[in-house]
Amino acid sequence: MLTNYIKKDSLIHKLNPAVKIFLALIIIFLSFLIRETYKLSLFSALSFILAFAAKIPKEFFKTLGFIMTPLLITLVIFHGILNPAATQVIATFYFLSIKLDGLIIGFNYFAKLLSFVSISYILIFTTNPADLVASLSKLGLPKQAAFVTLATIQFIPLMEEKAKKIMDAQQARGLRIIGGIIQRIKAYIPLLMPLILSMLDEAYERSISLELRAFFSKNKRTFFREELWRKTDTITSIILAVIVGGIIIV
Amino acid sequence: MAIKSKSVEKNDKKESIFKNIGKDFTTIAIVLIPIAIGINQVGRLISTALGLPIFLDTIGTIFAAMLAGPWVAGAAGFLTNVVTAIAYGRPTSVFFGLVQLGLGLVAGYCTYKGWFKIWWHVPIIGVVLAATATLITSPISVLVMGGISGTGIDLVFAFFQATGAKFWTSIIASRFLTDLLDKAIIATYLPWLTIKGLPEKYVKLFRYAKLIK
What we know:
The complex is a heterodimer of chains A (250) and B (213).
Chain A: H1 11-14, H2 17-33, H3 37-53, H4 57-82, E1 89-93, E2 96-99, H5 100-126, H6 129-138, H7 143-172, H8 181-212, H9 231-249
Antiparallel strand pairs in A: 1-2
Chain B: H1 2-7, H2 21-24, H3 27-50, H4 59-88, H5 97-112, H6 121-145, H7 153-162, H8 167-196, H9 200-203
């Protein structure tokens, strides 16, 4: 299965997925509503604390740095130097001038992105995708959508493996995948076509097995994965609600 | 067989496209969604392996549009980016799911109207798709990311900015240039060629495939 879930034994991992989903949705929504940079930074700080509470600080900051550093560099360059709306020049190198208000705009965008990316990571890293989908479908996600999400996560590694096999097989038969750009674009077709056709076969078989198992049955469903609502869930959600509310008011 | 009778219905071309939403999601169409998402991801994988300068991550969406119509394709397109966010750890891609959604809807509508039947229509629809992608991407990239994407497109953008073009002009021009290469040339032709050569066995399974053949 293709997932970023890190198995650890912590309070955040044991939390009901519904709490984490609501927290993530609220913070993502607020990230785009709130303009003040310091409030956005406080939201990121909350996610950082949660990362430590979930015992995954190493993985969390590594992934965050990997994703956010290039964004920080490009944002600072584009808004600090190239943004035509900025005027306050603070330093000039040859023909490039760095502008203060441009930098402020750049950092504001960065804070926005950081606050919602870090809370998404908390959700992704601490929740098993199967539990996530199970609690989403209890909250009213249609079973078709639940099936599609889980099936996709299982399908992609399978297809990647198949694609590699096809690449090897076609090269063994004399397909040239190096050379000029036209040559390489031409090579794309014999690589993707067999994959698509074999996957259509697979789709047909899967649709038969879904219908055999009464996928479209209107009866009430039961769940293999049961997530119970514990007392700690209530306490944690109240604490989190107070913190988020506090950040909005401050 | 149950699947066949559900998928193939007569005279459904005359119905309004909005009445088809429920009907479009047949069992095989639902199973097609994970596959379309997989093709989107693997398409990018192969493109990287071949060292091509374009992403080619919309082939699956357009393929789904040609087989199962706009609604299924839109869902597949949007979910592609949701899955990218969850599985590959890139949360910002969720917002660009709207681009895939739009592409799926437009490509599906063109299929529904039967515009894919004639070969020289394909590049024209490709240009329309590229324009759709540009129109949706540009505002999103400005609102969410402040105009940047963190990829090679930024260099094209910087080039336009350096020549003295306005902010919006440079964003739209840089996006359109890359989208044109990606969508208009390969991402539309490849699924179209596949479906033109599709065995009759598969064409029967999907409602929209016969509108292209």
